[in-house]
UniProtKB/TrEMBL annotation:
PROSITE patterns: TOPRIM. Transmembrane segments: none annotated. Keywords: Isomerase. InterPro entries: TOPRIM_dom. It comes from the Bacteria. The lineage of its organism: Bacteria, Bacillati, Bacillota, Clostridia, Eubacteriales. It comes from Sulfobacillus acidophilus. The keyword Isomerase applies. This is Topoisomerase.
Length: 119
């Protein structure tokens, strides 16, 4: 594997994640329910990378996730809580914690503060 790629629904979701994800982690968008052409483009973009899926907790997000899981059956999932009203409104700290748990973000910050659970 050559790193990770994160797939989200739209540009506002991508903007939210870009506030804390390093540029070395690409973020791709489905732009709503992806058609065959978009799925092919996502597959090409994801080649040799571990796919991480993040979609909204609503019916549309669940449908998009199901479609993406057919294309990327080994993808990792990050879920938001329904009360957060979508990926773009999910607290940054919550999202950072999920990325740390997957090993995409470091467990320690630049000052050495430990973010791992129990640390």
């Amino acid at each position: 594997m050559d790193g990770f790629i994160v797939i989200v629904e739209g540009k506002n979701d991508a903007k939210r994640l870009r506030t804390f994800l390093p540029d070395s982690v690409p973020i791709a968008m489905t732009y709503g329910t992806p058609g065959q052409e978009r799925l092919l483009r996502l597959r090409v973009m994801a080649r040799h990378r571990q796919v991480v899926l993040i979609t909204d907790a609503d019916a549309a997000g669940r449908r998009i996730r199901r479609i993406l899981k057919e294309v990327f059956p080994d993808s990792w999932d990050i879920y938001t809580k329904p009360g957060f009203n979508g990926v773009e409104h999910t607290p940054v700290e919550y999202m950072q914690d999920r990325f740390r748990r997957l090993g995409i973000l470091p467990l320690r910050d630049e000052q050495g503060e430990d973010y791992s659970s129990g640390g």
